[in-house]
UniProtKB/TrEMBL annotation:
Record flagged with keyword Signal: yes
Localization per Swiss-Prot or TrEMBL: Cell outer membrane
Entry keyword Membrane: yes
UniProt cross-references to SUPFAM superfamilies, sorted A to Z: TPR-like
Coarse class of the protein's main subcellular location: membrane
InterPro entries xrefs: SusD-like_N (IPR033985), SusD_RagB_dom (IPR012944), TPR-like_helical_dom_sf (IPR011990)
Keywords: Cell outer membrane, Membrane, Signal
Positions of the SusD-like N-terminal domain: 86-221
Stated name of the protein: RagB/SusD family nutrient uptake outer membrane protein
Sequence ranges assigned to domain RagB/SusD in this UniProt record: 393-538
Length: 541
């Protein structure tokens, strides 16, 4: 199934493609003449490839880090100096990132780079392709990818430059957040009639009609945040378009976790738009979740060909959402407590020294051999001086490496010969459609199709747990359900902001400044584009 991305990794004829951080345009390094223009259907599809390669590029890195490490969902502290990286990761937790933070810079470069490549590919196809349905579909797909990237920029940075003309390299000032919202909405609505109505292998990894409708629903649900005006009925209408298409259904309890396995793909009934990964296909884009999430002591349990780093953990505040229903299949995405090999019986043990187990051990026999069963702790325990807490180094002993529960939703891939996994990653899923519709109704929208917030939520829960259906649902209940359903899928920051929880306190974070709802414009972007101005709340930082 994964070979469907074979075109996405191919070069676009003789055209060199490079990222852009300046005007959201991408320069061409060879002269575009009729001899190097794409000339047939296969080459037209190949022309779109660099856009998807670019989107795949940092999707599992700066996108995930910026959306999850800034919340109570995940924390990536240093462990014995490892993963300190100039505080790039831990600054996300403390909400004290600066304009020079590497994750913030990568997020800008990634999303703007996809826009630049989209502009270039659209320009080429506009000139090279004959008029017809294929041209209209390919260009609408590219404009939808551009709209997704502008949505990401608007969501994370607020006001950003709008640029859709390839070849115009003049500096551009920012458009307001409302203007960007309106642009994305218009682009998606214009694209829908020309997008492929099908799902499955034919459209997998490329946007179809319901991708655009699902993103419109996401936009409308967050419209109060983006524009100051609620648009709950529009959210419901967009969700209904997806529902009425009949293309998707909720995966059952026995297949929920399989949606995230290495062999997932277009056969998954909930995937509206997913990002395909295949270590055997070149062209950029890595999926490293197991490297970050599996404790190094569990390499043998999962049969991995590499030793994972395991720097990422969840926080007790987030894990609390999973503690009240033992029958929920979603609990099985976590590694907690004492660890056993794949048989579930044989303890995972590590032999070290007493000092290697606990670097603070003061006994004279610190070099003596010590064997213990691996046990992951729920609490994130800092053992150093409080004066250095913002460096948050948990230590370089066995205790430190076992601090924090770990998420293995994107199940470790033992088939890959490198750290790169085969697991595709969903960007938009059908369960999100049902939960967004439920939330929009709870926030004042008009119920349609006979649905109620309770029936919509219970449709999902009946496929996740054998416990009794709910008899009532509140917005707070819905927030917790979203936390369970989309853990590790990079939507938690978006949810926390909409529910007014992003300024809360969790872990070691105490910052409550609402300015952190947006990231600053990175320094490199300001240098490359003199027309850009810093987001107001960061001007004096």
């Amino acid at each position: 199934m994964k070979k469907i991305i074979k075109y996405f990794g191919l070069p676009i004829l003789a055209i060199g493609l490079f990222g852009s951080c300046e005007n959201l345009d991408v320069p061409i390094t060879t002269q575009l003449t009729p001899e190097v223009f794409p000339q047939n259907s296969t080459q037209f599809i190949q022309t779109t490839g660099p856009v998807y390669v670019a989107f795949r590029g940092d999707f599992s890195f700066s996108w995930w880090w910026s959306q999850s490490l800034t919340t109570d969902e995940a924390i990536l502290p240093a462990r014995g100096g490892n993963w300190f990286d100039n505080r790039n990761y831990i600054a996300m937790h403390f909400h004290d990132w600066t304009i020079d933070n590497g994750i913030v810079g990568s997020l800008w470069n990634w999303s703007s780079g996809v826009i630049g490549r989209s502009n270039q590919a659209i320009s080429i196809l506009e000139e090279a392709m004959p008029a017809g349905a294929e041209k209209a579909t390919l260009i609408s797909e590219l404009k939808t990818m551009r709209a997704i990237s502008y949505f990401i920029m608007m969501d994370n940075f607020g006001a950003v430059p709008l640029d859709t003309v390839y070849g115009d390299f003049s500096s551009r000032a920012k458009s307001s957040r409302i203007e960007v919202f309106n642009f994305v909405e218009k682009e998606l609505k214009k694209a829908i009639p020309n997008l492929n109505p099908a799902s499955g292998v034919a459209t997998y990894g490329r946007p179809n009609k319901q991708t655009a409708n699902a993103l419109l629903a996401k936009m409308y649900l967050n419209a109060q945040v983006y524009t100051g005006t609620q648009r709950n009925n529009e959210c419901i209408a967009a969700c209904d378009e997806v529902i009425k298409s009949g293309l998707y259904t909720i995966e059952g309890r026995n297949t929920y976790l399989q949606m995230f396995y290495p062999n997932n793909g277009p056969q998954m009934k909930e995937f509206i738009f997913a990002v395909p990964y295949d270590p055997a296909v070149g062209g950029g884009g890595l999926m490293y979740h197991a490297r970050y999430d599996v404790p190094r002591s569990l390499r043998t349990r999962f049969g991995l060909p590499f030793t994972p780093s395991a720097p990422r953990s969840t926080l007790p505040e987030f894990y609390a959402h999973f503690e009240n229903d033992a029958n929920d299949i979603r609990n099985r995405q976590w590694l907690t407590g004492k660890q056993f090999l794949a048989d579930g019986v044989t303890p995972v043990t590590v032999t070290t020294t007493k000092k290697g187990y606990d670097e603070y051990y003061t006994g004279a026999d610190g070099g003596a051999s010590f064997t213990y069963q691996v046990e992951l702790s729920k609490e994130i325990t800092y053992r150093g001086s409080q004066a250095n807490v913002k460096g948050l180094d948990l230590g370089n002993d066995e205790i430190a490496w076992n601090i924090g529960y770990r998420n293995i939703k994107f199940y470790p891939d033992a088939t890959s010969t490198s750290r790169n996994q085969n697991n595709d990653v969903a960007f938009l899923r059908y369960s999100d459609i049902l939960l967004m519709k439920a939330e929009a109704i709870l926030r004042g929208g008009t119920a349609t199709l006979g649905d109620t917030p309770l029936s919509l939520v219970n449709t999902i829960r009946s496929n996740r747990t054998t416990s009794a259906p709910w008899t009532a649902v509140t917005l707070e209940d819905l927030y917790k359900e979203r936390s369970r359903e989309f853990a590790w899928e990079a939507w938690h920051r978006n949810d926390m902001i909409r529910f007014g929880k992003f300024e809360g306190q969790w872990g070691f974070k105490t910052d409550t400044d609402v300015k952190r709802r947006l990231f600053p414009i990175p320094t490199n972007a300001l240098v490359l584009n003199p027309a850009l101005v810093q987001n107001p709340d960061y001007i004096n930082d």
